[in-house]
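Page 47, continued from p. 46.
Same chain as before, 234 aa.
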Amino acid sequence: DQFLQRYRVKDFSAHSRREGIGNVSDEIVPFFQKGKGKEGEIFFSLAKFYPVFHHHKIKIYAMDLRNTELPLEERAKAALYIGLLAYTGGVGAGNLSTQYIQDMVDILIMPDTSTKVRILVLKGLSSVCYINPVNQNEAKAHHLPEILLSYLEEDEDSAEADPDVVLVKFWVCYLMTVVCCNNMSYIRLFHEIGGQTLEKRLEYLSNMEWFGWPQNYATLMYIFMGYPSTEAYK
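Result:
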């Protein structure tokens, strides 16, 4: 299992001290014993320790996310890492990440943010909201749908000339599909505030080259919205 690592007793104790989580040896399950006698080495499964690791790391990155003295790109990277930890850490990690969604959204609405910062935060939110209706609705409460639509409408004239702007819009489309999955309230809201403008934006982006992506998420979002089918979507 990729989520299980093996440590010697002394190595694990040192690791736990470095991570600042104290002595968690009582939470570890013996995995197997190699060798015999006093020189035998005991290895452990980290199955019970793994959630502790995720929660601890989320809180560490959250301090960076909220540290206004750090460069904005470093804060955006923290948002990405929180998302990855929430995605891989199970229900508990996902629930813990809920309280940091507003901080991520706040970065998205800052003026003159770089495309790199925007993409990092969009990636983080995509992971935090993936198959997590609680976090999806928390993001909606902080006006994420309106922000995503405003991103699609930005720099429309220069989008073709600036690949970075296009990439931001691709990530917006992906995040839109994430929050709409099994969440009809998002689809209704996008219809209400997006109207025909959203339909045209998605149709335009769906005709672009999505090389390197598993699928064309503008097309997928177009289908989610129930817009009239064209030859491109049949």
